Amino acid sequence: MTSNAHIDLSKAVYVLNNAQHICILTGAGISAESGIPTFRDKQTGLWENFRAEDLANCDSFVRDPELVWSWYQWRRSEVKDKRPNPAHEALATWQAKAGQLGQTISLITQNVDDLHEQAGSQATHLHGELWQNHCSECGQTYEEAIDPAVTALVPCKSCGGKVRPSIVWFGEMLPQEPWQIAQQAAENCEVFISIGTSSMVYPAAGLAQSAKQNGATVIEINPHPTDNGLVDIQLPYPAGEILPELVAQLSQAKN
Ligand code: APR
Questions:
Q1: What is the CATH number of domain 45-81+131-167?
Q2: CATH architecture of structural domain 3-36+83-127+173-254
Q3: For residues 112 and 131, what is the distance between their CA atoms, to the nearest angstrom?
Q4: What is the best residue among 40, 82, 88 to mutate for testing ligand 1's pocket, by most ligand atoms within 8 Å of CB?
Q5: What are the domain boundaries of the chain?
Q6: pLDDT 10s digits, 164-203
Q7: 134 catalytic, yes or no?
Q8: Residue 27 Cβ < 6 Å to ligand 1
Q9: Do residues 108 and 98 lie in contact, with contact meaning Cβ atoms separated by under 8 Å?
Q10: Ligand 1 centre from 78 Cα, in Å?
């Protein structure tokens, strides 16, 4: 790590050691080192000619439900064997130590994978969860995962409607409670950390602005820094590399 990086890391450790409420927003980049492509990575294989934005879309499901359903079943088959990387593990370690450090850590994620939970974190999902489904007609929820090998549409047991993934699609409203939790956390934190997100999709991308307006210091962990002018401390490194180092230094400072 360059000497500048050490300086930026020390700045991040300093502000975090003096913060009581911390809000963390993660995006697809935190799962990249677990082998899950990010949203803006080009699609591969059978799906290389499709854009995620065109498939994660309510109109597409109405127009061609089989196509959208089979894309999600493919994504589930791709994700099912993936495991947390050191970035997820570092956040889980930090959350476990929060009490001892005298801190509250709100972990908000745009991701629909369950790698934060697998690592032991408690995360608030803004865009839904990949393994959950509900009926597109009557709303009946289906908590148990549907085998990714089932590529045919699944009829709802209650009304016979088409079962869909419980993912927030482009143009749909975010679930109310998770969004309220996220807004509260962003508005009441002293430090806001954006990890592995291109900060392109609202309203999630607006959380950093809310934090900043309320006086928070904004830290970004992303090898390709976003140039939104909000970031006070830039850590342009893969999350799996820098987060374990950051969390280790935090814990030392308080022992
Ligand atoms: N560590 C940290 N950041 C990384 C890493 C890494 N190892 N690898 C890639 N990144 C960064 C990329 O530079 C990029 O800025 O992660 C970001 C991923 O951006 P996107 O693919 O746009 O994913 P995300 O920001 O989570 O998308 C937000 O958009 O498509 C919708 O609902 C979808 O939740 C998604 C939302």
A1: 3.30.1600.10
A2: 3-Layer(aba) Sandwich (3.40)
A3: 8
A4: 40
A5: 3-36+83-127+173-254, 45-81+131-167
A6: 999 999 889 999 999 999 999 999 999 999 999 999 999 9
A7: no
A8: yes
A9: no
A10: 17
25 ligand 1 Cβ < 6 A: no
What does the H/E/C string look like for the chain? CCHHHHHHHHHHHHHHHCCCEEEEEECCHHHHCCCCCCCCCCCCHHHCCCCHHHHCEHHHHHHCHHHHHHHHHHHHHHHCCCCCCHHHHHHHHHHHHHHHHCCEEEEEECCCCCHHHHHCCCCEECCEEEEEEEECCCCCEECCCCCCCCCCCCECCCCCCEEEEEECCECCCCCHHHHHHHHHHHHCCCEEEEECCCCCCCCHHHHHHHHHHCCCEEEEECCCCCCCCCCCEEECCCHHHHHHHHHHHHHHHHC
Mean pLDDT computed over 48-66 = 91
251 has pLDDT over 80: no
Provide the token pair at 213. Answer: 């307006």
- Tokens coding 68: 């959208």
